[in-house]
């Protein structure tokens, strides 16, 4: 035909020995020649190549034995019959062809491709082990002269093609997962670039701690040495890898065994801190705290200590005086001591008691620094002047007048109170003590430096949040006659106490944006109005006070080490790791929705998968999950039967939504409602929960 294909070629591919022998006989009658059996088409391929393509071993042996065709005959691209057997996946033919007829497995075509390269590129995993056993080099790179990618190994080609079985076999036989091509790309980057996720997992080998560590170090060196497309690809690989629970655990086993790695080759993990577990972050924090601890004889007069002498009857006032009287160096001292006035107790006992009691007193509404949400019982800073003096009604004498404390250093103001409280929280973390306060997520998020979410207002002022959401759906915004100002509580210097002894805040008109008084709210800007209103309530109203708290806080603990925590993790760091009674949680769970066409219940497959997932987690992970579902990381003291909701008892509910495997679980914390898509497997459920808990709304985008 036009390609030079002869009847002999077609017969060698599709027929048996008699037909092939007869055609050769007829060819010899027309033109006698010992070379008739070796005649080629326009690509230089002989009958032996055609027989190899179909695995016609009978004809191949006949051509070699009876007609003396060369075993390693090459076409115009230097492709041999063994190459064709390998790229065609004829596993049963490879060993006999090499062992009985001495075919050369090391032969390379004009692109430098060996039989092993061809098998890996075509995805024939069964061919790989025989070829390696016969001498094919498993890590042989393609030459610079290749028309393909110089430096690519069989593993590169298998990864690029998404041939996960080939990847596994190659690795089992010693393929180097770290070997780079001429562009500096490892097979792992090939797999991720082609979105072959199963190959990524196979090469990461999370079950093998040694290999996993080597892969991490290889990725780290790539990130340190490249700032272009390779860096972008490496970041994506790491982000994806961390969504695989096994690899996530392997990363953190490595970090916890050697926290110093985060200061060296693993430093990229600090820039992607959601890849680190809570325990890994704590290990790094402790390392950084030790590094920044004031040590030794700093000044000629002796050691720097941090000693607080506290009047138990006036714990907030004496704490402010004691805390603001410390230098930065003393606050970072290894030597810390708390003593209560008139009491002999020393050591960790008074220290732990102090942080628990003092923290609870600081947020007491008497002082007007924090407000308590009536529904979720969390504390959030209040708006007010920095200069206002702290006032309280004496608890020891009901007839006492309002007192304004005045220490030698000057009046105790909201400014000094928040600064001191920041130091108190920092000291609690530095000395591994706990506070007895549940803070709002927005407050914690501002400390760790994350982006605030508008939904966080629901935790603090649920009625206002619902009203603002309803406002967005209102049809006639002009008729409401709103502008970009709000009237809000604002505590000023000189505000009086009410009958309950609490600061009676003034009302203040606040512009939400420049010239807001002259900007009317309408359908074109209602979204912006609601957003600015919520941000004022969450952040802007108390910004000056928060700045003072953060100033005091970060004088005591290193800011970069805190900023790797999420707000939920900071809550665990401040308030401790709770013991969660999973049996009680499960006993009082309600179920809603349908799964696999049936009403969801305790014995449904989806429910069983969920509770197996909960039971498999360590306490830190369970605490994060409980906080994700209910807004609190602590089991209710009265049991899950009496789990508090927005305004009354609200049992935990597991609801199945009719969404697919690509969706993450979500929660309505005010109603203790966890919504799970109808996942098709336990593995998918675990991976999706892993992503939701560790990345949340600020996580990466996955296709």
From TrEMBL:
Pathway stated in the Swiss-Prot or TrEMBL entry: Protein modification; protein ubiquitination
ANK repeat copies, ranges: 43-76, 111-139, 150-182
SUPFAM superfamilies, sorted: Ankyrin repeat, Hect, E3 ligase catalytic domain
Compartment(s) where it occurs, according to its Swiss-Prot or TrEMBL record: Endoplasmic reticulum; Golgi apparatus, Golgi stack membrane
Top-level taxon in the UniProt lineage: Eukaryota
Annotated GO CC locations: endoplasmic reticulum; Golgi cisterna membrane
Annotated catalytic residues: 670
Gene Ontology MF terms: ubiquitin protein ligase activity
Catalytic reactions of this protein: S-ubiquitinyl-[E2 ubiquitin-conjugating enzyme]-L-cysteine + [acceptor protein]-L-lysine = [E2 ubiquitin-conjugating enzyme]-L-cysteine + N(6)-ubiquitinyl-[acceptor protein]-L-lysine
Domain HECT, residue spans: 327-703
InterPro entries (UniProt xref): Ankyrin_rpt (IPR002110), Ankyrin_rpt-contain_sf (IPR036770), E3_ubiq-protein_ligase (IPR050409), HECT_dom (IPR000569), Hect_E3_ubiquitin_ligase (IPR035983)
Swiss-Prot/TrEMBL keywords: ANK repeat, Cell cycle, Endoplasmic reticulum, Golgi apparatus, Transferase, Ubl conjugation pathway
Predominant cellular place of this UniProt entry's protein: endoplasmic reticulum
EC number(s) on file: 2.3.2.26
Keyword Endoplasmic reticulum listed: yes
Entry protein name: E3 ubiquitin-protein ligase HACE1
